[in-house]
Amino acid sequence: MTKNSVLVIEDEHDIRELLEYNLTRDGFVVRAVETGEQALVSIGSIPPDLILLDLMLPGMDGLQLCRRLKSDGATANIPILMLTAKSEEADIVTGLELGADDYVTKPFSPKVIVARARAVLRRRSESVHAEDEVLHFGQLTLHPGRHEVFVGDEKIDLTSSEFRVLHHMARRPGWVFTRYQLVDAVHGEKHAVSDRSVDVMIVGLRRKLGDCGHFVETVRGVGYRFRA
Fold first, then answer.
1. What gap in Å lies between CA 187 and CA 168, rounded to an integer?
2. Whether 15 and 106 share a structural domain
């Protein structure tokens, strides 16, 4: 059975060794680097199955690296689990909006890291093997297998989180989803992300969809739905 590979990007020596030890013991193939610049070299050589990314890095910080990886077609589909000592919601939301798949705040339990890593990889695998049904709604087209959205002939650039939220609602037109249900659909379990951060994501999604933004409707006092 092929082992999943993980690239740990963490500048603190003790934490880096702790992650290496626990992930290796749990069956992962682990590489570790200290900086974003080193990470780019490593990823360019051998792309990992998963990236554990500390946001507070010297030089290129974690958010800058995340943005760069998610904007490159060669690395955009590599799942990213953010590690951060920051508790500010803005940092978490920014990372998720850039396309990171999940986050863990320091201090953390090694068991939690391993569990989250496996959950992210499992969700990615399920997404890859999910039914590849192309969805059409007027000028709006979703290609789940290719992770692409078109309005007419124009390809719309969505983050992975925005795509998953849109796809989750579009598969069930008319169904109403609370903000927490949308967070669960994207990240797999409850997270400390506020109602406001979900609203901000929806506003950005509507703006990117342009004339098709009306498909994402607000249900006052409840949440959102995809217009039937």
1. 12
2. yes
* Model confidence pLDDT, tens digit, residues 37-79: 999 999 999 999 999 999 989 999 999 999 999 888 788 889 9
- pTM comes to 0.60
| Of 220, 147, 123, 148, the residue nearest 179 (C-alpha) | 220
Residue at which a domain ends, from 81, 96, 128: 128
Sequence-distant (≥ 6) Cβ neighbours of residue 180 within 8 angstroms? 190
Place of tokens 């929806």: 202
Contacts of 199 (CB under 8 A, 6+ apart): 179
Residues 137 and 174 in one domain: yes
Residue with the two structure tokens 């998610």: 70
Query: Which residues, in sequence order, are bridge partners of residue 205?
Result: none
- Cβ pair 57, 9 in contact under 8 A: yes
- 146-160 burial by CB neighbour count: b if 16+ within 10 A, else e? ebebebeeeebebbb
Question: Residue 210 and residue 61: Cα distance in Å, rounded?
Answer: 32
186-217 tens-digit pLDDT: 765 445 555 677 888 899 999 999 999 999 99
Taking Cα atoms as reference points, which of 84, 86, 36 lies closest to residue 60? Answer: 36
Give the span between the Cα atoms of 65 and 86, in whole angstroms: 17
201 touches 216 (CB < 8 A): no
